[in-house]
Amino acid sequence: MLKDNLYAVKQNIAMAAGRAGRNPEDITLIAVSKTKPVEMIREIYDEGIREFGENKVQEITAKSAELPDDINWHMIGHLQRNKVKTVIGKACLIHSVDSVRLAVQISQEAVKKQITVPVLLEVNIAQEETKYGFSAQETYNVLPEIAALPNIFVRGLMTSAPFTDNPEDNRQYFRAMKQLCVDLKAKNIDNTCMDFLSMGMTNDYQVAIEEGATHIRVGTAIFGHRDYNI
Ligand SMILES: *Cc1c(COP(=O)(O)O)cnc(C)c1O
After folding, report:
1. pTM of this prediction exceeds 0.85
2. Domain 2-223 in CATH 1.25.40.10
3. Cβ-based neighbours of 197, under 8 Å, separated by 6 or more
4. Interatomic CA distance for residues 98 and 87, integer angstroms
5. Which ligand 1 atom is nearest residue 76's CA?
6. Mean pLDDT of all residues in the chain?
7. CA distance 43 to 22
8. Full pLDDT tens readout for the chain, 230 residues
9. Strand partners, 61
């Protein structure tokens, strides 16, 4: 049962928070429902979850049309500039701003719609070739530039740590992300509020919580393995 999966995850969140001396309520669980049908999302919704994560604009559009309006959809995947228009206003938070060009596009469309769009900057903290995101140094350089754009509000940082069987391998990266976030917050840049740190997935969310994650993005542990062939 999905419900049992969810409660196991919640239990683990509480324990990880406890180990770190943190309040579990300060950690937002985002249920990553990509590729999963609305029936499964509804099951988790009925258990009280309102934050769901998707990596495709098309899935957010299709699923949000069929599900209750009080769901907060998180855009967590690479966002193409031609999809920006469709997703802003629908997603509560775009976790994956990985270029200045994308930020400019979000800003321009947000101005047209007269809304303000909250975003996170995606950091490729382990400098993996296959991943999107700024390096730590680039993040320093681009934050003031992105924050200065109209109608965009930088809430913090996001990362996807390397895939590993041993979550301890990623502790160094989560720690580096927390430090980066603290350093950027200390710069007190207008139009930023560096209080969101989105990191930790099924394999490593407990370590991420110990190292300061405020948002964890958990798919497989809740919904089971994804079948990309359907
Ligand atoms: C798929 C995905 C997740 C969830 O991964 P799981 O290992 O299934 O928990 C989290 N973040 C991003 C960016 C993803 O694409």
Report:
1. yes
2. no
3. 156, 157, 158, 177, 178, 181, 212, 213, 214, 215
4. 16
5. 13
6. 97
7. 28
8. 899 999 999 999 999 999 999 999 999 999 999 999 999 999 999 999 999 999 999 999 999 999 999 999 999 999 999 999 999 999 999 999 999 999 999 999 999 999 999 999 999 999 999 999 999 999 999 999 999 999 999 999 999 999 999 999 999 999 999 999 999 999 999 999 999 999 999 999 999 999 999 999 999 999 999 987 65
9. none
Q: Which of 16, 4, 7 is nearest to 205 (CA)?
A: 16
95 class by beta-carbon count within 10 Å (0-12 exposed, 13-18 middle, 19+ buried): buried
User: Residue 22 Cα, ligand 1 centroid: separation in angstroms?
Assistant: 23
Domain ranges within the chain, ordered by starting residue: 2-223
Stated length of the chain: 230
With contact defined as beta carbons under 8 Å apart, do 56 and 74 qualify?
no
Tokens 């969101």 — which residue?
A: 196
Gap from CA of 137 to ligand 1 centroid (Å): 25
CA 139 to centroid of ligand 1, rounded, Å = 22
Burial 189-212 (b: 16+ CB within 10 A, else e): bebbebebbbbbbbbbbbbbbbbb
Q: Is 197 helix (H, G, I), strand (E, B) or coil?
A: strand
pLDDT at 1: 87
